[in-house]
Amino acid sequence: MLTRAGPLLFAGGFAFLLFVLLAELPFGDPVMAVGRVVLDEAAATVGAANIVTSVVLAYRGIDTMGELAILFAAATAAGLVLGHPGKADQAEEAGGFILRAGADLLFPLLIVVGMYIILHGHLTPGGGFQGGVVLATAFVLPVLARPGQVPSHGALAIVEGLAGAVFIATGAAALAYDHEFLTPLLSPGRLGALVSAGTLPILYLAVGLKVGAELAGLLIRFTEADAESPR
Amino acid sequence: MVWVIGLMMVLMLATAIAALVLDNLIGATVAAASVSLGVSVLFVLLRAPDVALTEAAVGAGLAAFLLALALKRLGLWRIEVQQKEEDGRAD
Q: Is the ipTM beyond the 0.85 threshold?
């Protein structure tokens, strides 16, 4: 009885807290004034047609670097728990016909869609994180279809490390020009052009490759782990 | 617009309940992923396409992938027909 009461009490208290907070706020009336300022300023100063990107990479660039660091730490910890890579020789049999044919068809499509989402991150919705996830699924799908042929973890680690280094180097380059860390360099360019918004596309490409390589490595390690672990 | 929101609410509730109720764990995984798809449609209607894209990629894609791999690792990745066959072989 008492074990049930605890979570119920917590949920009730939490609901009460939310209710009190919401009762004080006028509905649909933003309390923060920052959003309005960003909407007015971002297109002219940063040059990204997608305002979200200008917030994520230009105004809150260090937040994004923190996110990358958190993702890296989580992937490393999961890799440690999941154990040794390799051991492809005892791989299970290949997937069924539908899975194999679907993986062959979807692989190029997913690569193109992922790269499109990453490279147009400063113009259209999406960006490095979303495109990176799409790229990761593109590389894990063939592993599911043919468990024997695994992309090497070394290559994935090199891509991930280079992408992270490019992100930090782009941020550090701003220091050389007496700006703050991760300030967008180069000219904003014409709003809506593919080559615009200064260094933001480079940053998003780095984010996308890093996230993609990281998640692909993690998921592939997950598929390998199930072959060797006892039930 | 309102009826799309209503449809999505019904769909999300139905798939969420299906994820809880279904005995077939593969079906439950798919149902859990389709809740995320409904959420991402709602995000598009609320004019947050960036969040919708993240929800579709991570919530529907990656989370379903992880759930499926976890099922496979636990040895629960099978449909009932196969299960009966394996049980019959064990006898």
A: no
CA quadruple A118, A119, A121, A124: dihedral, nearest 10: -120
For testing contact with chain A, the best of B36, B46, B55, B62 (most A CBs within 10 A): B62
Residue A126: its chain B contacts at CB < 8 A? 49-50, 53
Band (pLDDT 50/70/90 cuts) for residue A195 is confident
Closest chain A residue to B54 measured between Cα atoms? A130
Q: Which of B50, B53, B65 sits opposite A137 (nearest CB)?
A: B65
Indicate the pTM of the whole model: 0.78
The sign of the CA dihedral A90, A150, B58, A68 is: positive
